[in-house]
Amino acid sequence: MAHRFFVKPPVDSERVLLAGPEFHHLRNVLRLKPGDEVTLFDGTGREHAARVVQLGRSDVELNSLRTEAVDRELPRQAVVGVTLPKGDRQRWLVEKLVELGATRLVPLRTARSIVHPSASALARLRRTVIEASKQCGRNRLLEIDGTTSFQEFLASSPDSAYRWIADRAGAHRPAAAHARESGDTYVLIGPEGGLTDLERQAAAASGWRSIALGDRILRIETAAVVMMTLAGFGLLTASGNAP
After folding, report:
1. 26 DSSP assignment
2. Distance between CA 116 and CA 135 in Å, rounded?
3. Among candidate residues 15, 37, 69, the one where a domain is terminated
4. H or E, element range at 5
5. What is the CATH number of the domain that holds 156?
6. For residue 40, how far is the Cα from the chain centroid?
7. What are phi and psi of 60, to 5 degrees?
8. Domain check: are 13 and 50 in the same one?
């Protein structure tokens, strides 16, 4: 696979300019030269084969050679609501959710959550989305919402979606295997201190089901990766989990 670079959409002409972090990566890290071919993606599901034409002081000019729609997405929407962990664990979490095909990440504010990311922190995580997408070959970007309350997230999840909460005391366990079913999936991972009884009751009243991921206590990011993996393989469906 050719070196990949993100360019803000739309790419609607043969001449394309790269600046900022992407320019730095092309010129100073990879040290590409005029004539080298790369792949551009703009987050719309398209890839653009391009050739480096000229390196400037603050940008690089490329010539778009051809455009192709390349779909590497899951067959369903996968939304992850999670109370973010501390520090660098946030970046690791975002990387893995991108690789696993999550559609949207919603940072949650719960009764026991500690981390509430600032606007600048969210901007850094959105940059991580681009870097992870470059690496794994995704052509659509994981969306990261602003911090959302637990109740708002419950209310915004459609009744038509499969909705699951990771909970050690959950009434269900993952199915060993099950055929894919259509339908979006929403998953929710609480803080390290766990959800309160009131939050569990509110989720159950809204139609969410709880699922146990084993007898060991998982970190937030580990639970999120497990839940996203199950969602990606179509195991979090209405019939794919039985009490």
Report:
1. I
2. 28
3. 69
4. strand 4-6
5. 3.40.1280.10
6. 20
7. -130, 135
8. yes
Shared domain check, 210 and 91: yes
Name the token pair of 199.
């939050």
Q: Three-state DSSP class for 237?
A: coil
pLDDT of 113-155, one tens digit each? 999 999 999 999 999 999 999 999 999 999 999 999 999 999 9
d(CA 157, CA 232): 18
Containing domain of residue 59, as a range?
4-69
Q: Where are the beta strands (DSSP E) in 7-82?
A: 15-19, 37-41, 46-55, 59-69, 78-82
pLDDT digits (tens, 9 = 90+) for 38-67: 999 999 999 999 999 999 999 999 999 999
- 182 token code pair: 């259509």
* 3-state secondary structure (DSSP) of residue 143: strand
DSSP 161-230: SEEEEE-TT-SB---S------S-EEEEE--TT---HHHHHHHHHTT-EEE---SSPPPHHHHHHHHHHH
Q: Which two structure tokens, joined as six digits, stand for 86?
A: 């501390």
For 14-27, the pLDDT digits (tens) are 999 999 999 999 99
Same domain? For 108 and 185 the reply is: yes
Answer yes or no: are the C-beta atoms of 243 and 194 closer than 8 Å.
no
Same domain, 57 and 155: no
Is the same domain home to 35 and 96? no
